[in-house]
Amino acid sequence: MTTAARPNAQLNDTDVSRDRVLSAKPGATTLPRWKRILFSGVLVVLVCGTLELASRWYLAAFEGFDGTHLLQYQFDPYKNNLPTPGYVDTRGIHHNRQGFRRRSDVPMRKPPGTYRIFLMGGSTAYGLGGLWPHLQRDFAVIPDSATISAVLERELADSFPGQHVEVINAAITSDWTHHHLIYLNQTILNYEPDMVLFLDGFNDFFFYNRDHDQFASYAYQERSREVMGDPTFASLLFTNGWWLFRKSAFVNVTSRAVQKVMPLFRHPDPHRTSVDVADAMSGIREVFPRSALLMDRRIGLILRDAGVRAVFMLQPMLILERDHKPMPEPERKLFDFNVASYLPNYEAFMRQAVPYVDSEEVKVARDVGAHFIDLTPIYAGVPEQIYTDYCHLTPLGNALLAHYVEGKIVPLIKADLRRTARPGTAPRRQTEPMVASVPQ
């Protein structure tokens, strides 16, 4: 048995060798493992490089990429966020070297004969474009010349011929009122302002959840805790993802595309809990005085002590415009989407919350010698499109708002100029409050 098996085994081995020779292609060789790994790595690099270059071309051709800055904002150690100094969007957005939305730099020492105004606030004051491109793409970018600050500066130049009046846009997208308090002390007061305008409301005035914390609840503060907090696997992924978003054009384009597409697949839950308006109003009466309103009070006191006029302004919001202004078809679609995106009864809550906030801001302005302007009613009867989404404005909306504000602050500027024209006049320490509030 053993002797007979050996020839068969030899024959089988011979057959297998013959089959391998016959099946092999002429000239075919097997690459070593290290060469296959190297080839795969080179292929990955080529694919990634091609995608990165294609993304940079796309951003330059269609998104205003200047070849350097992928993000309009950068980290700030005091207030989380700062417009990227030197940022350029070739479609019409410029930041100077100090991070102000302005082409020219601002000398810290105010030139003689200059009346200097700073505009502070969130994205509406900054001049952000529409955030709902799935509904309308017409206002993706609001150019520098069409921002509130630029229009206001031009109008004040006409009102004060021979007098140099600056309006410097120091607004920061997503800012809350406590960021204004920080920014004033960190930067703005060093530039010798005569007046500071604050355009706020949407970002942090209308919280009614009683556990709201003005500092800890801020979204960018939560993100910083992801990076600086416990070193979990999730925080590692977040940190690396954020790094790639800021450094890679391909990741940046892909992420923004996903953000734009997501609203198409979001549908309000039909079983969402409606806002209990009475309970929400009770909540805002508890939260607002110890959060945003308290920040405004402290801001007003600091500026009064510095002899600077403070003007607080309550911004217009689309959700308040039902039966208030005629809406063209694009704006009507924006309005319907806006209302549907909130909890049921949120519109009813806002209609009660705004007069309450208005009345409390009036009191604070009087207490600290500041000024208050309610801008929520200013578009009544305007048939043209004013809003690009829930609170951002078209160039016309910015122009109408700037014109309205200009009419309210001209008397204040005239009073200041008369005061400084008198020799030996002491710096202003307290002013008579001016309140321009229209009941809802």
Helix segment tally: 13
Tell me the overall shape. Answer: globular
Q: Beta-strand percentage?
A: 5-15%
Helix content: 40-55%
Mean pLDDT: 90
For the biggest β-sheet, the strand order reads 6-5-7-8-9-10
Kindly provide the radius of gyration, computed on alpha-carbon positions and rounded to a whole number of angstroms: 30 Å
In the predicted model, the low-confidence regions spanning at least 5 consecutive residues are 1-5
Give the class from helix and strand content and strand pairing.
alpha/beta
Helix and strand string, N-terminal first? HHEEEEEHHEHEHHHHHEHHEHE
Gap from first CA to last CA: 108 Å
Give the strand tally: 10
Largest sheet: 6 strands, parallel
Short description:
With 440 residues, the chain is of the alpha/beta class. It is built from 13 helices and 10 strands.
How would you characterize this protein structure?
This protein has 440 residues and is an alpha/beta fold. The protein has 13 helices and ten strands.
